[in-house]
Amino acid sequence: MIDAVIPTEACVNHSLYRSGLARLLSLLLCVCADSALGQATWPDKPLKILVGFPPGTSTDTLTRMVANHIAERLGQPVVIENRPGAGSSIAAEAVVHAAADGYTLLASSTANAINPSLYHLSFDLEKDLRPVGAIAEAPLLLITPPGLGVHTIAQLVALSRSKPDALVYGSSGVGTFSHLSGELFKMVSGAQLTHVPYKGSSQAIADLLSGQIQVLFTPASTAIQHVKAGKAVALAVIGRRRSVELPDVPTMAQVGLGRLDASLWSGLHAPAGTPNAIIDRLNRELQVSLALPEVRAQIAAQSNDALPGTPEQFAQAIHEDIVKWAHVVQAAAIKPE
């Protein structure tokens, strides 16, 4: 007679454990397989990049330059969609809520690093978006009218101190990079300047050329022609290196104001949760695009420098900017209009 074997409670539990573990492993393998399959076929439809500024602006133009080449490399169209407003926060929020599948990206800029200290945003730039990579950076120029009679930063600072609050500096608007750069310049140099914001840089430059304002912090692309024509004097570059077009103009660091080592950058972000494989692929294609001589020439024609690098390097630079500009906003008590 064969005795029946009655499993003990421990044996039953062990059997259930093994059965459950097998099912869990099977499920994980299926999920990983599906994920790998999805990434292997990515992209199988057009990509979309949201730009938080109007067509023709620097961020828009630079994004379109690299998007065309990325599209060729990926074998899928890359559509640019302009959603201006709130300093690019409207576009950023839309990308935050988009599917994290690599098909919706944000054309990010320095404005996105400034906005957290100015506005009550519904998202966190560093947590809710993933950096893909930087595209380019543009220096700012500190320019004055020839009639002011100053040719160095030291002379400007001395003049401003001798006439407290008599000198006016313009910017392209409250809370913009040019405004915050002006406030940071005042902090690190001790210059005494009064701020007048404009709606964009065109009228600000016109007023500087006519002598209505004495100082302007403006992207190099909008001022170089006036400097070369002798209608404006460039005292310094706010950026990491001298301008190729104005090699005799020193950087702020070279005149002893190293804390003004800043630049107006543009780049690409994806929603948080976008798979690493897709982020890496996008960054790889971006690096290839930025290495092309024709792309670098187009970027240089906009008075920008190509800014290749990894997502991690881009993330670190963004974090440093967020901290830097938050300090300036708080110290200068800047409030958005």
SSE diagram, text form:
Blueprint: H1 9-40, E1 47-51, H2 58-74, E2 78-82, H3 89-96, E3 104-109, H4 110-114, H5 125-128, E4 129-138, E5 140-144, H6 153-162, E6 167-171, H7 177-189, E7 193-197, H8 202-209, E8 215-219, H9 220-228, E9 233-238, E10 264-271, H10 276-291, H11 293-301, E11 305-306, H12 311-332
Parallel strand pairs: 1-2, 1-3, 6-7, 6-8
Antiparallel strand pairs: 3-10, 4-10, 4-11, 5-8, 5-9
Roughly how much helix do the residues carry, as a percent range? 40-55%
Number of strands: 11
Q: Classify the fold: give the CATH topology of the largest domain.
A: D-Maltodextrin-Binding Protein, domain 2
Shape: globular
Indicate how many domains the architecture comprises. 2
Indicate the proportion of strand residues: 15-25%
CATH homologous superfamily designation of the largest domain:
Bordetella uptake gene, domain 1
Count of alpha/pi helices? 12
